[in-house]
Amino acid sequence: MMPRLLIIEDELPMRTALADCLEAEGYRVLAATDGAGGLDRALREQPDLILLDIMMPKLDGFALCRELRKLGHATPVLMLTAKGQVQDRVRGLDVGADDYLVKPFSTDELLARVRALLRRVTRPALSLTTVALGDVRLDFVKQQAWRGRKELHLTVKEFAVLRLLLEADGEPVSRERFLDVAWGYAAFPTTRTVDNHIATLRGKIEPDPAQPRWIKTVHGVGYRLERQK
């Protein structure tokens, strides 16, 4: 049975677009047009995932998410934020949201985030200790890496980038996601910073950096890690 997703969004065009996109993928979609109604429906319907706008009448997304967590509900929440509002994203994560999307966003990224959050519900979190990528071995506990017997010098940021890629389990990770998690909110550099770090990282771990085997570019989104099966 396909998961049930609850959209809490007061703007009709956005609510309709989200519902159409998710229903086209086979998800069962519920909807609410304001915060108070959304909270009531979330408690009654027990959806598998909530897509939550921040700015809404009656009860905003922050208060709604905080109330859900206070009541002990662990339903994954994907918060929808306005472009450029960094503090909104920080606050959203602080009150219990699991992830966020910045408007406007692509359909591909929306679906990737939904799939990733739903996987967290159905499987334990990935425990990263040592990981092999071909002849490269990564030790996330000691923050060390080797190619064969030769030690590779990876930075803390490069280990953070690799961790994000591994935790995404083959799904794309956006440049903005890299910035927020690996760089932190205080600095918030440009997306070009991510591209430069990826290029350097490829130079260290890829057999042929010009034709990457592991870290693949997802045009218009970011990067994903393709591991051998």
What does this structure look like?
There is one protein chain. The chain is an alpha/beta fold. The protein has two domains: 4-122, Rossmann fold; 130-225, Orthogonal Bundle (Arc Repressor Mutant, subunit A), CATH 1.10.10. It contains eight helices and twelve strands. The strands form three sheets. Strands 2-1-3-4-5 form a five-stranded parallel beta sheet, with helices on both faces.
- Domain count, please report it: 2
Distance between the termini: 27 Å
Give the CATH topology of the largest domain: Rossmann fold
CATH architecture of the largest domain: 3-Layer(aba) Sandwich
How does the overall form come out from the CA principal axes?
Answer: elongated
Text of the CATH class of the largest domain: Alpha Beta
Helix-strand makeup class: alpha/beta
Spatially, the strands of the biggest sheet line up as 2-1-3-4-5
Radius of gyration: 19 Å
Largest sheet descriptor: 5 strands, parallel
Counting DSSP E segments of at least 2 residues, the number of strands comes to 12
List keywords for this structure.
about 230 residues, alpha/beta, Rossmann fold, Arc Repressor Mutant, subunit A, 5-stranded parallel beta sheet, 12 strands, about 40% helix, about 20% strand, elongated
